[in-house]
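pasting for ref. prot 1 ->
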Amino acid sequence: PEQAKASLAKSKYKNAAGLPQITLTTSGFGGQVSKVLEALVQEWRDNLGVEVKIRELEPELFLYELKTEKNEMFDMGWIADYAHPQDFVDMLFRTGMDANYGEYSNPEVDKLLNQAALVGDSFTLYQQAEQKLVDDAACLPLYTSRSYTLIKPYVTGYRVSPLGFVQLNRVSVAAH
């Protein structure tokens, strides 16, 4: 909170009272905001004196509204189509991409992504692009979900792919 207050003091707004109305857009029905967003809004209020209004859009309209109406912030998740940083960095932050709802644009990041597309071992280039995203505060990653599965000791060969798909082709069940 102290660093956030110091950054706010250095900004053109000087303090929370100088901020314009801040609206965070999320997807959902009937005013049932996620506990994560409730906690964030409360923390911003308690620690910084910043008031954030939550705007909830019906899920069917959410992505369309993000394209046509901009608020200061929005909440969304992304699930990998394949286990590679390109699916996140390139799809969400390259200038002009359809999934770049925040309309982030940085020629240095685009250049790194172009280079990464041409080389076999591109992870270092993606790490450099990701660092620029962090430096620019292009997004606020809140969490990564994790699932747990309990497997009986007599079940062997149970596998889950990096994308979370259960692979049952090698499963066997011993007598028990």
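and prot 2 ->
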Amino acid sequence: MFGFSQEDLRLILGPLVEKAAEPLGSMGIDIPLAVLSGKTQHISNYFKQLFAQVSNPPIDPIREKMVMSLFTKLGSNLNILNETPEHCQEIQLDHPVLYDEPFAKLEHLNHRNFKSITIKTLFNADAAPGRLEQAIEVVCKQAEKAARAGFKIIILSDSGVSPTMAPIPSLVICGAVHHHLISARLRASVGIVIASGEVIETHHFATLIGYGANAIYPYLSMETIRKLSKEDLSVIDEEDAVSRYIQGVNYGLLKIFSKMGISTLQSYQGAQIFEIMGLSDQVVDKCFKDSISRISGISFDQIAQDVLDNHGQAFNSPYRAEQGL
């Protein structure tokens, strides 16, 4: 359903767990642009990380790790020039990758001054035109209503996929909600947590953070790692395997930040330091406003079609039969 491949398991998740670091590869990418591919693509593949135009990295994340930080927080961002009791009402995280227990605590948070709400990010899988865009609009309005009602944490979750409901790509809905709350002048009043089954590698995390996510819960990757630790990986203990995965992702994020000379996650969050290749102007304007996009491409309906192709393989849906897939 979420597009995991054997390559993802063997070349990305496996090394991340066994070495607690990103897998190494040759310089350069010789694969086609995502928009030119004949296969369904993760939406983050349409984004290319920008980097400082110098011959050497502006920051070395290993030797200069003392100035690097993955610290993030959830809650309202108040005026930094004032000091009030409300400034203390925040949840601090050492890094943006959430484990099962911390996420469960956030999901059931119900303090009188600090409440969370979970919004399902799903759309009807009947392949009707406009379904994805309509669902995005509904989620954005729900997020705005929650922010106005005083909720401090908005969890966007694609769990609950069924034969009739498919997941909205996490990066699309994250960017849409982020920009909708900005336009409503409410973004600083809430933290956004993404709970998604399609988040696997560091680039997925980086794009979500770059478009506003405060924290990310990659639940399916963690469940997959637990299964792999029993069957294929040299790391036997399930929880140790998940811990090493988080460690590897965090180290990968620091390397990504360093390419632009950014030393803290809070400086990277919402910075949109990406070039988009292959998304239509309509998608960019709604979800990734003001990002560099020199090459137009697929629309909301075409993004939905990619999602429905995976959905059809997972559930053998009537949509696949109608389309002869």
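The longest strand covers residues 114-120.
The chain has a mean pLDDT of 90.
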